[in-house]
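hiii, so i know i said id send this last week but things got crazy w the move. better late than never?? heres the sequnce for the chain we talked about at the cafe, plus the structure i predicted for it. fair warning i was half asleep when i ran it
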Amino acid sequence: MKKNLLFCAACALIVALGSCTNDVLDEVLDDSQPTEEPTRSTNDTRWLHAYVLCEGTWKAGNASIPGYLIKYDSLWNEISRTQVGDTGNALIKYGSKLYCAVSGNGLTADNGGIRVFNAGTGTALTSLIQYDDPKSGHKIMPRHLAAHGGKVYISLYSGAVMSIDTLVYAKQNSLALAATYSEGICVANDQVYVCNSGNANDTSAGSGNTISVLPLDLSEEDQLTIVSNPKLIKQAPDGTIYFNALGNYTTESSALYKLTTTGYSQITDQVGGFGIGADAVYTADIDWMSMDYDTHLKKVTFAGVVSQFNVSTLPDFMFGYSVSVNPYNGDVCIGQSMGQDLNIFKSDGTGPTHTIETGVANVNSVVFAN
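okay and structure toks below
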């Protein structure tokens, strides 16, 4: 059945020294995991809450519809929703907190920043925290987040990267990159990796073909030359670093790649977004050239075996956009572009077992907590 598409610097309050100690302990424990949501055994179903970040509509009509963070229980009943600001672009859990990147509506709009939430209750710990961009001369336009060693690392659309601490959220380190329109970020092997969708002097995104590699203190930058328009980058439990690139939308298809000791290698095409589970990478892409804008879902084992994830029961006009994997049971969550739906599948492709109507356009990511 076709779905209706819906188009529709503050300081942290530290309550007690004990809560600070607990945060530090949680973050030390999380450091043993990749910097995305930690991957657990798929027979562990003990999750209590899911947090769904919806971007809202960026510059749609005369004004943007703001993004929301929506909390659900384990039966997918909505508990609460919080307006996060103009374009909620990334959400991660680190220690006992959720960190949300709010991009704002432009590099010079001065309405982007970071919001922090309690991962247990979903309550806001801060209002929008804004920082000076080391490159643009404006407030930051954050795009993606990663965490490691008591810091949250933030890629900036100006072509820069910065880190903040996780106790009072103070700016720690930053560096203007030899790039523009920086996107995905991850921390692996004590290095920070940042995808750049623009080169140094570009005035629009899409032509960039580098990944910046930096030490944890962000003191210097090396670059890997790759394919054009890289978007997301993540580390799998086996240590492999995967990234996707969107190409030029015409003659170059989007695709999934992995970094190798000699450079990079392509794994499969048609990958506009991806998420990583305990033993596989799950990908989604929209075929904008097809009559029905078909969604393509794939499953890629860490051994490199590619298969169609679900070919028989996809909703019409699904517009598969974002991919999040539940680390507690392996469920694969596909967020809808332009529309409001979150479709949830089993790791074998069965489903969707649930279709959640969030009420907010552009479902960006899902983070699970117990």
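btw Residues 1-34 have pLDDT under 50 and may be disordered. thought thatd interest u
miss u guys!!
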